[in-house]
Amino acid sequence: MTVQPIRLFGDPVLRTPADPVVDFDKELRKLVKDLIETMQDEGGAGLAAPQLGVGLRVFTFDVDDVVGHIVNPVLSFPDEEEQDGPEGCLSIPGIYIDTKRRQNVVANGFNEFGDPVQLVGTGLMARCVQHETDHLDGVLFLDRLDTASRKDAMKQIRSAEWYDAGRPPTIKESPHGRSVFGSGLFSPGR
What band does 164 get if pLDDT is binned at 50, 70 and 90? Predict the structure, then answer.
């Protein structure tokens, strides 16, 4: 297990949809361990493989003393209830902006050995699962903000110590729609 450097906003890997995992092997288990160790070292609630420069559909989470991972997640939403609160990202350090998310989520996927798993989350866990699944689709939480909030976030980013003006950021529309989340289903192929 090794703490890895986290890719920062502006790195193209953060805008590239990740590929589904097909090999549940030793390399995948090493990736999961690296993700967990890096996430915990940084004090994050979640970390997706693209944030380490790996284009695979896997993320880890550490919310309310529940630590785990999910491979090839597919999300569904049991209701229309929303939450709105501060959200940040280890790839956009020090920036926290109120972001709307669904209050409840069900994530179906696999563990590092290829066994089916289901994660039912509410509140912070639901926010984390949606945020990390967005990373797997090449979407950042900034893409979910309204125009005024996005402009404020970009101003904060441009003045951040870590920001590299030589690597300009890309903002894109979320493929899941602006309202709440489009159809409410994230499919692994996106």
Answer: confident
pLDDT for residue 173 is more than 70: no
Contact 69, 111 (CB under 8 A): yes
pLDDT in the model for residue 188: 33
C-alpha distance from residue 115 to each of 1, 110, 118 (Å): 22, 5, 10
DSSP label of 8: P
Single-letter amino acid code for the residue at 131: H
For the entire predicted model, the pTM comes to: 0.86
Q: Indicate which residue of 37, 80, 87, 132 is catalytic.
A: 132
Per the listing, tokens 């489009």 go with 182
What's the confidence (pLDDT) of residue 104? 98
| Number of Cβ within a 10 Å radius of residue 157 | 19
To which residue do tokens 């967005």 refer? 134
Local structure of 115: helix, strand or coil: coil
132 as an active site residue: the answer is yes
Structure tokens at 39: 């996430």
Longest dimension (CA), the chain: 45
pLDDT classification of 167: cutoffs 50, 70, 90: low
In whole angstroms, what is the distance from residue 101 CA to residue 126 CA? 8
Q: Which two tokens stand for residue 56?
A: 């695979």
